[in-house]
Specification:
The chain is of the alpha+beta class. 40% of the residues lie in helices and 26% in strands.
Length: 153
């Protein structure tokens, strides 16, 4: 019976880790905040430049990888190009504005809800673990740590 209850908590932990690792869904509309942004053929700073985007240009980021966002060029349907996400903003940026956009337009609302959810779940898990034997606690905590480390990589 303890194993079945423990299994439910492991499944809940897996769902929690996966859900909290996805903060924003793709595709996502963002705006170029750099004066000129290189769109590259691959997600590396030394990859060949395919084309350039001007400040204020709206782009649709389809996916992300290690700080790079995958976009499509309207002139090259079917091809994926990469831009550095650090030069994109969630808020529209005026092409003729004087300085670089200082904010990312994120109000943090979803982050606060996520943190509160994680906190409530952690408190529930701690209370449940207190009712188990030391060996069961060790096994469950080990599995949860391995899952968290695996998702973060």
């Amino acid at each position: 019976m303890v194993i079945v209850r423990s299994f439910h908590w492991v499944i809940a932990a897996i769902i929690l880790v996966v859900a909290t690792s996805v903060v924003s869904a793709f595709p996502q509309t963002l705006y170029v905040k750099a004066d000129v942004l290189n769109a590259r053929e691959d997600p590396f700073s030394d990859a060949p430049v395919a084309f350039k985007l001007n400040k204020g240009t709206e782009v649709t980021v389809l996916d992300s990888l290690d700080g790079w966002g995958a976009i499509k060029d309207p002139d090259s349907p079917g091809e994926t190009f990469w831009v550095s996400l650090q030069f994109l903003s969630e808020s529209p940026v005026a092409p003729d504005s004087g300085g670089e956009d200082s904010g990312d337009g994120n109000d943090g609302g979803a982050l606060v809800v996520g943190i509160l959810f994680v906190l409530a779940l952690v408190i529930g898990i701690i209370r449940y673990l207190q009712s188990l034997s030391p060996l069961a606690r060790l096994v469950i905590m080990s599995v949860m740590i391995l899952l968290i480390v695996g998702v973060m990589q």
